[in-house]
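Subject — a protein and its fold
Fields — amino acid sequence, structure tokens
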Amino acid sequence: MTENLPSFVAAVFVALLLLYFLRLNQLLGGTPDAVESCSMPRWTARLLRDTYDRLEAAPITTHSYASRIPRALQRRYVVTGGSGLVGGYIVLQLLERGQPPETIRIVDLYPPSRDDMVNGPASKVEFVQADISSDEATKRAFAKPWPAEYRRLPLTVFHTAAVIVPSDRSKLESGFCESVNVRGTRNVVDAARTAGGDILISTTSASISIRPVQLWVAPYKLWSPSKWPRYFFQVLDTADFWKPLRTRAEYYANYPFTKAIAERIVCQANSKDFRTGCIRPANGVYGHPTDNTVGGPLNMGILPTWTSEIVQSFAHGINTAIAHLDFEAILASPDSFKLPQAGRPFTITDPNLPIRYGDLYFLIKTLAITRFRVIPLPPIVMVLLSYVIEAYTLLRLKWPWLQWVLPPIVGDIKHLKPAIFSICSHLIACNDEASKPVALGGLGYAGVLTTLEGMTQEVVEWNHVHRTAKKVRFQSSVSLADEIQKATSTSNIGDVGHEEHGYVMMN
């Protein structure tokens, strides 16, 4: 009997460990009651098809919501990351309200490629290629002469450029994000001041407020009321801004840490002669097939995922751009630097309750004319695999000589690291402050379209492209960031981001 004791103990341990993993898997794939109560009702096939038919007959365009765009100001504009998602919509909205194309300048690494920006008035907007991680290149782009009749107009800068690498949390992997998101923002602020700018509004990210999810629940809590992993459900607001900057480890990844630093650089620059503020869109910015939220699944066709029951708030690029223009209207007066809105961030989201990722996948499956299938994955298996992938990646970085014998991990799986599970948790955005009337310290913000309308319209546009052309694959912001990072490791090319698509993006 004594001889069999070690085997018996080992068997009990394995059984208990398996039970622990099974229960944790159940929790990671579930939805807390508090989240259920504040999420949208599930989308039905009838609702989706009715919305699709309505938007196919009358698509949402800048003209259709022109009355919602703040009135034109007699100013010049520089839009960093203007080839991307939010930056592109800012340019289109400026033009819609009557801004001459000659008074707008896009500063980016790559020229615009979106159909709505390479045709019509947007095609006349000046593009200046620059690497915002380079102080010299950034100042040169801002200092380029303007047409004589406009050069004396005051200057607004919309800074939407950034890189998103949501999976990297180690300081060993932080250089890329820091060079663009921190140094690049500092360069843009300096260049804007040097060029005579008096308003600068930056796109940051609601993910700044996310705390890293503590995935490993104590065994004795697994069936208790507090069974959910800590921070598995979070409200995205701006409360963190009014407190000291957290340490790197208190952010889920390098991306939100660098965006938090960049946000404070912008807000601390606020003064009478240089009014500033930030917009934090939540949580995924979408609005074009190159975004990660809707465009990512559309482009993949077959989507392995564990997030179908995850509830999150989203922000369409149109709504995010509108918030920037709302902010600019407030900061137009020199005395506005003393207002409660100046020198601070505002979180914004679509004008509706958050949705489940499963509703997004159902929308794509129901409405897209291209193939789409979801392959459910057990969360706990992906969690365990993520630690292996991260350890392997850091091993190659910590001891570079190992790169001769250990090949790099390629493809989307290289982003499967523990940090991903914090951004793939239940995240509910609160834009109550942004929606307050201006007189009460808000932006007077109200979204133009709901998440249902925004995501449906993106599929309408996707179907239109695929009815008239062969299979088209759009490059997402994360994959483009990978490409840029690879290029910067072999050359002096830096990066000016886009938002959610184009170059990099703004989440």
